[in-house]
Amino acid sequence: MTQTAATVRRHVVVDTPIDRAFFLFTERFGDFKPPEHNLLGAPIAETVFEGRVGGHIVDRAVDGTECRWARVLVYEPPVRVVFSWDISAEWSIVTNPEMTSEVEVRFLAETPQRTRVELEHRYLERHGPAWEAVAEGVDGDEGWPFTWARYAALATRGG
Amino acid sequence: MIAYEDASGWSALADGTRRAIVASLADGPRSVGELATGMPVSRPAVSQHLKVLKDAGLVSEHQEGTRHIYQLNPVALAALRDQLDTYWRRALTNYAEVVSSDAQGPGEGEDRAGQKEKRP
Questions:
Q1: Which residues of A touch B88 (CB under 8 A)?
Q2: Per-residue pLDDT for chain A (159 aa), expressed as one digit of tens each?
Q3: Those residues with Cβ within 8 angstroms of residue B45's Cβ, 6 or more apart along the chain or in another chain
Q4: Cβ contact A14–B116 (<8 Å)
Q5: Cα distance between residue B96 and residue B90, in whole Å
Q6: Engineered SS bond to B56: which of A27, A35, A111, B12, CB 3.0-4.6 Å?
Q7: What does the H/E/C string look like for A83-145?
């Protein structure tokens, strides 16, 4: 199955044991995720990665509001974690799970003191409608609401 | 005719058959006939759904001989992919910095409560 166009793959090698690599990835997620991607209306006070299947990744803002933007689907410390990506390309929450993508992170011990972390963000095609929004919105703010209106018009068209 | 009864007013992908078509096209380009073979709907119905997806810019079409081949709009998908690729590149770079700054700590029993105040 070819999936290159709809999959992002990244890896990094860190000089730390696999247990520690996994622990830091989940416990410190809020410290390393790019900060400008905030779905809340106020600065993020903390990000909690709930370490269990059925848990969430939750951003909590300084004003007390929170945003659950991922569901933990697989939790196998220290080797693997899979979570859903419930964020559209317009950076809003997606409530229909069939229209969310998925992130798998695998941890491999290269040596007792070195760990390879492989990340795969797949099923991007499920976010479908937002592709065009991204393409039009990349260079300016006006692209997104314009496209949103187009999709709304499409969906309500008579047939 | 296909009714567009999407109550949420959301998108071309609100329909289950259209989602199935997009999932199939994620594996590679397909003709209408190939798409219809795997679906519980008629070939004309698949054509109608493809028209909606095409109008939405999600799917593009080209002709090979007498066959019309459909594929996911590569520009649109690439834009989302690029955005997320950048996101994860930066996240993993930051992660490596977190790991190296944490370096020597065996750490299992550490109290990390004091680190929560870092963000503005």
A1: 8, 10, 119, 121
A2: 334 678 899 999 999 999 999 999 999 999 999 876 778 888 889 999 999 999 999 999 999 999 999 999 999 999 999 999 998 776 778 888 888 899 999 999 999 999 999 999 998 888 764 444 433 433 333 333 333 334 334 333 433
A3: B2, B17
A4: no
A5: 10
A6: B12
A7: EEECECCCCCECCCHHHCEEEEEEEEEEECCEEEEEEEEECHHHHCCHHHHHHHHCCCCCHHH
Quick check: helix, strand or coil at residue B75?
A: helix
CA distance A129 to A133: 7
The model's pTM: 0.65
B42 inside 8 A of chain A by CB: no
Task: Report the DSSP pairing between strands A114-122 and B30-31.
Answer: unpaired
Q: Distance (Å, rounded) from C-alpha B25 to C-alpha A88?
A: 20
Closest to B9 (Cβ–Cβ): which among A27, A124, A155?
Answer: A155
* Sign, CA torsion B50/A141/A134/A31: negative
Q: Which residue in A65, A61, A55, A125 sits closest to A89, CA to CA? A: A125
Give A-chain residues touching B25 at CB under 8 angstroms. 125
Residue A128 — φ and ψ, nearest 5°?
A: -5, -70
The answer to ipTM > 0.90 is: no
| One-letter amino acid of B102 | D
Contacts of residue B90, Cβ cutoff 8 Å, sequence gap at least 6: A34
